[in-house]
Amino acid sequence: MSTTRREIAAPHWLVQLLRSTPVPIPWNMVARAVVALAVPLAVGYALGDIGVGALVSTGALPTVLSESAGPYRYRARRLGGATAAAGLGYFAGLITGGIPAASIPVVVGVAAVSALISAAGSNASVAGLQMFVFYVLGTGQHVTGLRVEVLLGYFCAGAAWSLLIALATWTFRATSPERGAVAHVYVELAAMLSATDEATSRVARHQLTTAMNTAYDRLLTARSWLSGRDATYRQLLNLLSASTPAVEASVAMVNAGRRAPDDVIDHFIATSAAVLANQELPEPPEAPEDADPVLAALYAGLARIGKGDNRKRREIQPWHKRLRGWAGSLVSGPLTWFAALRLTLCVAIAEVVALLVPFERSYWITLTVGIVLKPDFGSVFGRAVLRGIGTVIGVGIGAAVLAAGGEGWLLVLLIAVFAGGVAVGKVRNYGILSAFVTPLIILQMDLASTGSWDVVLARLVDTVLGCAIVLLFGYLLWPGSRRPQVGGRLADSLDSLVRYVDKGLVLAPSGEARLERSRARRRAYRALADLRTAFQQVVVEPSAAGRQAVAWWPVIAGLERVADAVTEVGVTLGRGAPAPGEADIALLTAALAELAAAVREERDPAEMPMPDSAQLSGVVDQIGAAFDAVRGPDLVERAPLRLVRRFLPYHRRA
């Protein structure tokens, strides 16, 4: 088996690396990016100074690069923090630019800070990246000859403009993102129940898990920052919570290989439309008299949706507790320190190389290193390769612009096209993002003032050098960078699955017990979804890490089937099916715990007794398949995990 996996690993990682994420084009984000970046350039050209327009457009970049879907309050905090951090970095770059004795130690320090604050969450991570990027860009602005306060003023004007564009629709679309996220859950339910084969239904189930995670994240994030007028958010959250029985019954039906009746699928579609339009929910269809336990549970779940659940309000966490949690993650999370050390080392090397390269404004080397090596963004190898490929394409586009004599309104049009490409690349593929952001920044910061072919050549050489530094010092020579890490996350997912088995196979007579079972199910599916994401990040590497990810894939798929089998049994409880005995449940949890221990200890799992119960036969079969999958891959592919085992607490928090 391992030989076969080694044979397919090389072409597999290349295919995964170049694959685009199949998500819809975010046309709203595309429109905002075009307006934010192209309008300042157009106004500057109309007033006779396109260079000033380009500088103002540069100030709009942090918002465009940090844009993401989500609640408006969340987006305001995310974009505001990223823009403020970018402005601080830009100002520091303007002050120290042109003075290597000052800029080199400062940029190394900024790199370290940006890496460390990433442990505070996704918003802090984005802010740290923008601070680093715009510090580096700011160091190259001294050649314009403009005063620091003038350059900073142009930047702030662009930043204010882009924030206005990003949040302009708040007043009449305040809850639209959350409402759309809840409605999308019902669309995915209908899609899953409409699937005609196992492969399609499996993909649909993954999309349903993602949709539910997104909806809960958006609603809980929004409500945590509301002080009183949260009736709409409370209604949506109660509606989503009340959908849990329908979700569980739907998963159980798909796991049993059955297709739901058409009236159920139509009801989910109608419910989605009603939620999106903020209208009254449709009446659920009546269950047939001869419905079996799973089908009866599905119809009962439909009736439950309109009733809603009453959830307690989430308490706002004080800022000092959040700060304490971040500090604790730094103390007990050595991977954050290793990532910061790797970033600062490679940035220092890039700064030295920039002094030796015979090109003016070679800050692009350092910029490339920082963007590729920024922590928590996936595979270093994959990002370096995609950055190089995307930049070569982007430089080719820039060369074509120069060859066509691009200026004036043509330049404005090209900025608009590149801005839209950046918005698409952010959600589709990092290589696409690089292919558009490279000519965008070249036009904004170089061609608008110089229009030289030398700029294109310099950007190409600088990017190649930056990627080479990352691949050599940040990947090939960096200790542990090519070691497998999927196994440690796999063991953590098994722990979540053990807790779900313990809660999901018992009767839940009270509302609190049902809520606890629902939470255990969501945590298990979320852990498996996160595991799948980690796999997709690592599988692009042609190293032991990538080979191990491929070797572990049957186990990941097997655990998802175990979770579905548990859900199927849990749905039947209380509807004519008795609860499994405590001894049988203990055997299942012991078997999964042994599987987790075997993964952590780098050994084959021991033979475990399993319950002899027709009711649990589906769960037993899937656990047996998972045991076979763990024994299948060669130990060479699965080891070593010792480094990961030392950092497991960090992984659990991440």
Topology:
Blueprint: H1 2-18, H2 27-46, H3 50-66, H4 72-96, H5 100-116, H6 122-139, H7 148-167, H8 176-194, H9 198-223, H10 231-242, H11 244-255, H12 262-277, H13 293-305, H14 319-332, H15 334-356, H16 363-373, H17 380-403, H18 409-428, H19 430-447, H20 453-476, H21 486-504, H22 511-538, H23 544-572, H24 582-600, H25 617-631, H26 635-638, H27 642-646, H28 648-653
Helix pairs in contact: 1-23, 2-3, 2-7, 2-18, 3-4, 3-7, 3-19, 4-6, 4-7, 5-6, 5-15, 6-16, 8-9, 8-10, 8-12, 9-10, 9-22, 11-13, 11-23, 15-16, 15-20, 16-20, 17-19, 17-20, 18-19, 21-22, 21-23, 21-24, 22-23, 23-25, 24-25
Describe, in plain words, how this protein is organized in 3D.
The protein has helices at residues 2-18, 27-46, 50-66, 72-96, 100-116, 122-139, 148-167, 176-194, 198-223, 231-242, 244-255, 262-277, 293-305, 319-332, 334-356, 363-373, 380-403, 409-428, 430-447, 453-476, 486-504, 511-538, 544-572, 582-600, 617-631, 635-638, 642-646, 648-653. It is mainly alpha-helical and 654 residues long. The protein folds into 3 domains: 20-171 and 334-475, no CATH class; 176-304, no CATH class; 483-631.
